[in-house]
Design a protein that fits this description.
Blueprint lengths: L1 H8 L3 H21 L1 H23 L6 H16 L13 H16 L4 H21 L3 H23 L4 E3 L3 E5 H20 L5 H28 L14 H27 L1
């Protein structure tokens, strides 16, 4: 009994690792090539995330998820064509393009309209964040922070176990895994500081990026639990859908964009 329980605990590890390797290879190739390859990766990922998100909230046969996914992909592409904003300009065409898919969902959906707009906009802001970080060191460190937090949380949660973090929303997540994710991110931040990548203050804030990623994961889990599904789709073996794999990065990247925008407004004033 214990042997079966132990083996089932790790049953998803093999497909999860193999899928992660494949995704990492694609990401590394796109980042290495940069330019159009990197832009294509971000456009496809954000488009698929929006499509999956819309399918969760609007599961009945409808064209809305496809249209929203295409609108999201086009919006990210348009936002890459020039400066996002000029000094003194509140709304530019690039900024307006980010709102098309979320507004479309809020207007055309027959339920969950506020969620369509709010989480849809977070997906678009995350796409903007990926473009801003670009295929360079900032993006590499960002990805390492999220992966380190996720891996540390995954193994600590299954080895240590203990009290659940938020059982009504995400029954598999434990406090041990959550805290291990923060510690893993902090260690990575300290390593970055020792290499001159982060200042001491930035290194201290690295766990907050991990926390935003964890909250992105929690938010997506809450949406899936609300609509009664396990995965956002079955596109990725061992991970479910694209949104299941990128939910943490969407939370963290979206939070970074919002914080950067707030900081710009504060210092501009």
């Amino acid at each position: 009994m214990n042997s079966q329980s132990s083996s089932s605990k790790w049953a998803d590890l093999a497909p999860r690792v193999l899928s992660a390797i494949a995704m990492a290879a694609i990401a590394v190739a796109a980042i290495w090539l940069g330019g159009a390859a990197y832009l294509a990766l971000i456009v496809v990922v954000i488009g698929l995330c929006m499509w999956e998100f819309a399918r969760l909230l609007q599961p009945t046969p409808t064209a809305l998820p496809i249209v929203m996914g295409l609108a999201a992909a086009v919006g990210i592409f348009l936002s890459s064509l020039g400066p996002i904003n000029a000094p003194g300009v509140v709304m530019s065409p690039q900024i307006a393009a980010l709102f098309v898919a979320p507004v479309m969902g809020a207007v055309l959906a027959n339920r969950h309209r506020l969620l369509f707009f709010g989480y849809g906009l977070l997906i678009m802001l995350a796409g903007l964040g990926f473009l801003a970080m670009g295929p360079g060191p900032a993006l590499i460190w960002f990805i390492l922070i999220i992966i380190t937090s996720d891996v540390a949380g995954y193994f600590a949660g299954r080895i240590i176990g203990g009290k659940k973090f938020w059982p009504r929303v995400s029954p598999k997540k434990t406090w041990s895994g959550t805290i291990a994710g923060w510690i893993g991110a902090l260690i990575l931040g300290l390593i970055g500081m020792s290499q001159g990548v982060f200042t001491p203050l930035e290194a201290a804030f690295v766990p907050l990026i991990a926390f935003a990623g964890q909250m992105g994961d929690i938010a997506q889990s809450a949406i899936k639990r609300m609509v009664g599904v396990k995965d956002s789709s079955n596109l990725i073996p061992g991970h479910g859908g694209v949104l299941d794999r990128f939910d943490a990065m969407i939370g963290a990247a979206g939070a970074l964009v919002l914080l950067a925008g707030a900081g710009t407004l504060i210092f501009a004033g």
